[in-house]
Amino acid sequence: MATAQIKHDYHLVDPSPWPIIGSISLLFVTVGGIIWMHHLSSAAPIIFGIGVIGVLYTMANWWVDVIREAQYQGDHTRVVQISHRYGMILFIASEVMFFVAWFWAFFNSALFPADAVHATRDAVFGCGAGTQMGACSVPGTWPPKGIDAFDPWHLPLLNTLLLLTSGTTVTWAHHALLHNDRKGLKYGLLLTILLGLTFTGVQAWEYTHAAFGFAGNIYGATFFMATGFHGFHVIIGTIFLIVCLLRANAGHFSPTQHLGFEFAAWYWHFVDVVWLFLFICIYVWGTGGGRLAGGE
User: Fold this and answer.
1) CA distance linking residue 56 with residue 236, whole number of Å
2) pLDDT over 90 (residue 194)
3) Residue 196 region, left (φ>0) first, then alpha (ψ -120 to 50), else beta?
4) Cβ 199 vs Cβ 234: under 8 Å
5) Is the separation of the CB atoms in 143 and 219 below 8 Å?
6) Worst-scoring range by mean pLDDT, 172-186, 205-219, 245-259?
7) How far is 171 from 192, CA to CA, in rounded Å?
8) What confidence score (pLDDT) does residue 155 get?
9) Exposure string for 163-180, b = 16+ CB within 10 A, e = fewer
10) What number is the average pLDDT over the span 139-143?
11) What is the enclosing helix (H) or strand (E) of 183?
C-alpha cells in the first residue's frame, strides 16, 4: 500500500522519547537537590548528578532531532516557522515577566526603605555578613547601613560595554548571513561568543569580591537573584550561539532558512536589554537614588 502524500504545510511531529526522559531526569534533579540541601542522604549528589546527565543528554538529542527536521527533512515550512516565531516571542515575554518579579522585589525595598516590614526584617535578620543584629534598622536608607555596594563605573560598566559590543557583533553576523557572507557569519558569531564568555568571567570575579552576602539581607538577596539569573541567561545564550557556530561551520543556515540562528539573536538582544535595566536600576540608581527617595 502506497504511503499517502502529505498535502498540508503543518509538521506532525513523530513520536519522541525525549519528553518523558527529560521529565524523569528533571524529577531526579529536583528530588536530589532537595535531599542534598536538607542533608537527608549521602546519595543525594549521585541522584542529582544522574538527573543533570539525563537533562543534558535529552537536550543534546532533542536539539539534534529538531535540527534534522529543519535542515534535512524540510519539516519547518513557512507556516511552521510562523508558529515557531510566535512561540519564541511568548517565551521571551515570559522571561521578561520573570525579571519583572526581581525588579519588583528590588524596588519594593529600595523605594520604601523606612517601611515597617523592612525595618522589622532588618531587626530580626540583620544586614548581612559582619553586621551586628539590627544594625541596619535605620529608617530611610538604601542601600541598607552596613552594605558596601559595587562601584557601577568599574566592573559593571565594563560588562555593560562587553554586552553592548556583543549586540553589534551578533547583528553583524545576522546581516552577513542575509547577504550569504559565510565568513562574516562565523566571525560575528565567534566574537559574540568570546564577549559572552568574558562577561561571565568578569561577573564571576565581581561576585567573589562582593562585600556583602546573599543571605541575611534584602539588598544582597535581590542583587544576587536579579544579576545572577541574568548571568545564567548569558550562559544559556552563549551555549545557544556556540550551537549556531557549529551549525554554521557544518554548512547550515541560508539567507532564507535560518530560524535557529534568528532565535539565538533574539535571545541575545533580550539579554542585552535586561542588562541595561539592571545596570541603570540596580548598579547606578540603587547605589544612591534610594537615599533620595528615603529623604536622606
Assistant:
1) 13
2) yes
3) alpha
4) yes
5) yes
6) 205-219
7) 10
8) 94
9) bebbbebbebbbebbeee
10) 69
11) helix 182-208
Q: Which residues contact 146 (CB under 8 A, 6 or more apart)?
A: 127, 128, 130, 131, 135, 136, 217
Distance CA 279, CA 57 (A): 35
Beta-bridged to residue 254, according to DSSP, are 257
Counting every residue written for the chain, the total comes to 296
C-alpha cell at 238: 552563549
| pTM of the complete model | 0.83
CA–chain centroid gap for 174, Å, is 21
CB 261 within 8 A of CB 145: no
Backbone angles phi, psi at 257, to 5 degrees: -140, 90
85 membership: H or E segment, kind and range: helix 78-110
Residue 126 and residue 132 in contact, taking contact as beta carbons nearer than 8 Å: yes
Predicted local distance difference test score (pLDDT) of residue 145? 77
N- to C-terminal Cα separation, the chain: 83
Of 10 and 220, the structure prediction assigns the larger pLDDT to 220
Reported as a single tens digit per residue, the pLDDT across 108-132 is: 888 876 665 666 666 655 554 444 4
What does the pLDDT read at residue 166? Answer: 97
Q: What integer pLDDT is reported at residue 13 of this predicted model? A: 77
Instruction: Tell me how far apart the alpha carbons of residues 291 and 140 are, in angstroms, rounded to a whole number.
Output: 7
Residues 185 and 177 sit within 8 Å (Cβ to Cβ): yes
Q: How far is CA 156 from the centre of its chain?
A: 17
For each of the domains in the chain, give its residue range(s) and CATH number, in order of start. 16-75 (1.10.287.70), 77-294 (1.20.120.80)
Q: What is the CA radius of gyration of the chain?
A: 23
CA distances from 281 to 9, 108, 270 (A): 46, 13, 17
